[in-house]
Amino acid sequence: MNEVKVVYGLVKNENDEILAVHNIKHDTWSLPGGSVEANETLREAVIREFYEETGFDVEVKNIVAINEGKILNHNNHALFITFNCKITGGNINNNSPKEISKIKWIKSNKIDNYITYYQSPIKDLFNYNAEYFYEGEFEI
């Protein structure tokens, strides 16, 4: 199986709303994010994907969830890594119109009606925290 890493950014605004995007290919809602490209760190991937899908620049904080799955019809073993993020600039804009059909702020008490792949309520993810460090490039 191919190893695949997918990153997501979780943000909440002052109105207790979480930013979500609608993916055209799978007709599903998710947090902004996508596949990590070759030679890209997880943090770099979150920043790039978040901007591509929403138009917002983000500061990437720590990991709040790691999900794992095997996507049999694509022969992929996938890790889905969700980071807590903070919007630092930009304006809402869909820079990926072939992939994303809608960008929407959704009340945190309703977000689980849209995004169903987390075991705990998405609003609870803000309470979780695993430190993330990029240790740089080195040889051992």
UniProtKB/TrEMBL annotation:
List, in alphabetical order, the Gene Ontology terms for molecular function in this entry: hydrolase activity
Q: Which organism is it from?
A: Mammaliicoccus lentus
| Residue ranges the record marks as coiled coil | none
Q: What is the lineage of its organism?
A: Bacteria, Bacillati, Bacillota, Bacilli, Bacillales
Pfam families associated with the record: NUDIX
- By what name is this protein known? NUDIX hydrolase
- Keyword GTP-binding in the entry? The reply is no
The Nudix hydrolase domain extends over 1-131
User: ATP-binding: present as a keyword of the record?
Assistant: no
Provide the alphabetized UniProt keywords.
Hydrolase
Q: Which cofactor does it need?
A: Mg(2+)
